[in-house]
Design goal:
alpha/beta, 532 residues, 6-stranded mixed sheet
Length: 532
């Protein structure tokens, strides 16, 4: 009996020694990460680009590290470099660099599900998201997770996509899909962690296109980290902020900001994961193969985009904050004027009479520099090819939509209105009081309409909440995108396309109405939105 106990003890000791001897060496693993690259894939001033990311990856591997390269979404849309191919070039670049995994950002859906599915097939790496659900089947839209072997380390990677996608891409692009949020989201993420650990993963990496901005009630990355146990590294995106948050006993929370300005690097040091952000200029060499691939695509795009449209003697900023998402901007005035002009031209014979134009600030993705305005400039500002619509709504509905679309001002929101034909005042010292929630949206009607925002006039006449107004807006807004869910009940019967997309209307205004020169009056805001 004593011999059997001794033998059993020796076996257990041997197993312990063996398991310790073969424990994964985390110090040899480097996690490189990007997010919100948005097609800024060619090296330029302040932009690292894909060829530099590839060379840094190779540099680490030459030093004996095993590199896991991942991305937290919004890779295929925004910059003209990738827009012209509807994101195919971005996938081509990622393939050549050697990415291991990516999650879906909201802008991955901007070209529609059919195009997205083509991009998914082209990717030679895993694209994962666990909380995007096909409503008809209850199954995930794409695979929720993947396991990647790096040396002797088994890495489990799962993805999470922002529920804000429902309103931050054209709603028609996500029809039939559900994005889990809050408790359902936490439960979903915990399930991924538990399953990956059960499969023997040594490290758990979450790719979350989620962000930290508390707006409209969506779960934040911090909420997920607080409610889900077992994540080692949470690679974040969506809000374009640089992050390096060490959470004791929980996940390291990291993000590079956006546009490949920084390259994220995470190492295992002294028993914990630590971030070592590589800012632009720290590592400067480029992989020749990737550089040649990117440069060739850039030359093709530049040739198509160099057509001269107009000229301007000053800059028009397209910055987000402070900018088109927080206040009236000269660029917003110019674009809204262009759309209103085009709508009135298109409807001059058939009607209806167009009273005003509203465009969501989040739809303006760039600015105009002094000098020549080219087709590429215009496409960079408006990369979505949105159809322009007119919609007729009661004044009361219009007021509620505008008040909802400024509900967090002076904080940024994509729905912030840039307008033409409207004068209004906004008192940000008065809190936005939530009323009834809009159906199919995370936004709310104002509980006390007029207490925070007041419309002074529309089309030069005093505002009447009982009158009906015909408004030029993007198809995206009419379908309830961003904070414009109040338009949805009127979209089916009271809206129609004017037959122009946003870029064409803007170009027509610059060339025809303005004669190819942006006038001095657009150097400053027009005073259409007074904010205090």
């Amino acid at each position: 009996m004593k011999f059997k106990k001794l033998l059993a003890g020796l076996v257990l000791s041997s197993l312990f020694v063996c398991s310790s001897a073969f424990a994964a060496d985390l110090s040899k693993l480097i996690i490189m990460h990007t997010n919100d690259t948005h097609g800024f894939d060619q090296r330029a001033d302040g932009i690292n680009g894909m060829a530099t990311i590839k060379d840094l990856k190779d540099d680490f591997e030459a030093k004996g590290y095993n590199v896991l390269l991942v991305d937290a979404g919004d890779a295929i849309q925004d910059n003209n470099l990738v827009n012209m191919s509807k994101g195919a070039s971005a996938i081509k670049f990622f393939n050549e660099v050697g990415y291991d995994a990516q999650t879906l950002g909201n802008h991955e859906f901007d070209y529609g599900q059919e195009v997205l599915e083509a991009r998914l097939k082209e990717a030679k790496y895993d694209i994962v998201s666990a909380n995007v659900i096909v409503e008809a089947t209850g199954k995930t839209y794409i695979k929720p997770s993947t396991i990647i072997q790096k040396g002797d380390v088994k890495v489990g990677v799962f993805g999470l996509s922002t529920p804000e996608t429902l309103v931050s891409t054209n709603p028609k692009n996500v029809r039939g899909l559900k994005f889990l949020d809050h408790e359902e989201l936490y439960k979903c993420a915990q399930k991924q962690v538990d399953e990956l650990k059960a499969d023997g993963c040594d490290v758990i990496v979450a790719l979350g296109h989620i962000g930290s901005t508390k707006k409209a009630g969506y779960a934040t990355a911090e909420d997920i980290i607080a409610n889900v146990k077992g994540i080692d590294v949470f690679v974040d995106g969506h809000d374009h902020k640089v992050k390096n948050f060490e959470n004791p006993g929980s996940a390291l929370h990291v993000s590079t900001g956006s546009y490949t300005r920084n390259i994220g690097v995470v190492k295992y040091d002294n028993g914990k994961w630590v971030a070592d952000l590589h800012k632009y200029g720290r590592f400067n060499s480029e992989d020749e193969v990737v550089k040649k691939l990117v440069d060739k695509e850039a030359e093709k795009v530049a040739k198509a985009m160099n057509q001269k449209i107009a000229k301007v003697a000053f800059d028009l900023s397209g910055e987000r904050v402070p900018g088109v998402r927080t206040q009236e901007m000269p660029l917003g005035d110019l674009v809204a004027d262009a759309f209103l002009w085009q709508a009135r031209q298109a409807m001059a014979v058939t009607g209806p009479k167009i009273d005003a134009a509203i465009i969501n600030g989040g739809g303006l993705r760039g600015g105009i520099k002094q000098g020549l305005v080219t087709r590429g400039t215009v496409s960079a500002i408006m990369p979505y090819n949105n159809q322009l619509y007119v919609i007729t709504v009661p004044g009361e509905v219009l007021h509620n939509v505008l008040e909802t679309s400024t509900c967090v001002t002076p904080e940024e929101m994509g729905g912030f209105p840039q307008v033409a034909g409207i004068e209004m005042t906004l008192d940000t010292t008065v809190p936005f009081a939530r009323g009834e929630q809009y159906e199919g949206s995370s936004y709310y009607k104002p509980a006390k309409p007029g207490s925070r925002l007041q419309i002074k006039s529309i089309n030069g006449k005093p505002f009447d909440p009982k009158a009906e107004y015909t408004i030029l807006a993007l198809e995206f807004q009419c379908n309830g995108g961003d904070s414009y869910a109040g338009f949805m009940p009127y979209a089916a019967k009271n809206s129609r396309s004017i037959g122009y997309i946003d870029t064409d209307a803007f170009i027509n205004y610059l060339k025809t109405e303005l004669g190819g020169v942006i006038p001095e009056r657009y150097k400053e805001s027009q005073g259409r939105i007074q904010i205090k």
